[in-house]
Amino acid sequence: MLKDNRIIIICGHYGSGKTEFAINYSLLLKASQDKVAIADIDIVNPYFRSREKAKFLRERGIKVISSSIEGTALDIPAISGEVGTLIVGNEWNLILDVGGDDVGARALAPYSKNIEFGDYDMFFVVNAYRPETQNAADAISYLKNIEETTKLKVTGLINNTHMMKNTTIEDVLFGQKICEEISKKTNIPIKYISCIEEVEKQLPHELKDISITTSLIMREDWMS
User: Fold this and answer.
1) Does residue 224 lie within any of the structural domains?
2) In the structure, what pLDDT confidence band is assigned to residue 76 with cuts at 50, 70 and 90?
3) Measured CA angle at 122 (ends 207, 142), to 5 deg
4) pLDDT at residue 71 tops 90
5) What pLDDT is attached to residue 80?
6) What is the CATH number for 180?
7) How far is CA 197 from CA 98, 174, 216, 224, in A?
8) Which domain holds residue 158?
């Protein structure tokens, strides 16, 4: 069972797999919580956003919040006012799927004054195969930029190092080593390891307690 704070903010470098993790996290949270909402506040990247799986999530009882203007042919860079309502309320478990890098994180900044310490966790997703986060120093630079932009602190690291369906245990352990270095230098704990089921089965025993099985929901069958 997940034991994180009510508001979960998912951030990280562009293309690190934030949305895939956010969707899988919301499904896992729904297994133990009645009211779960996921808000897509990525107004920068037009691809691989949680709003694309709105029907899938709603069928599973998860509230989906995205653009303030709903329409199948519209893609408006605007965020529904309902996000702010759920932030200041206390009934809903809210997952905020933030755009990549500090640029994407700017959409979160207006809400930061209403997000109280102790009521949120902000998870920084690390894919050590992304060009700009292949080492701890670069990843920490991205992390600090996001903190500065949002005025919120990262509370946990997510090792999401992968090669999609071709991910191996060696890939995940490589990412874990990078995350351990980031954690040591920042005092931010590694909260979860996110990986496909085949790889999760191969994780060392001491890592299984923090592993989350990640289904490739955002990747269509034809994608590798």
Assistant:
1) no
2) very low
3) 90
4) no
5) 66
6) 3.40.50.300
7) 25, 17, 10, 16
8) 7-213
Separation between Cα atoms, residue 42 and residue 48, nearest integer Å: 10
| Domain tally, the chain | 1
Does the residue 222 lie in any domain?
Answer: no
Contact assessment for residue 79 and residue 68, using Cβ atoms and an 8 Å cutoff: yes
| Sequential DSSP letters for 162-200 | -BTBT--HHHHHHHHHHHHHHHHHH---EEEEEE-HHHH
Instruction: Report whether pLDDT(128) > 90.
Output: yes
In a domain, 36, yes or no: yes
* C-alpha distances out from residue 37 to 23, 67, 91, 190, Å: 10, 14, 10, 24
Q: Which residues, in sequence order, are bridge partners of residue 163?
A: 165
- Round to the nearest angstrom and report the end-to-end CA distance of the chain: 30
Q: What secondary structure letter does DSSP report for 100? A: S
Q: What global pTM score does this model have?
A: 0.89
Is residue 2 one of the residues assigned to a domain?
A: no
Length of the chain: 224
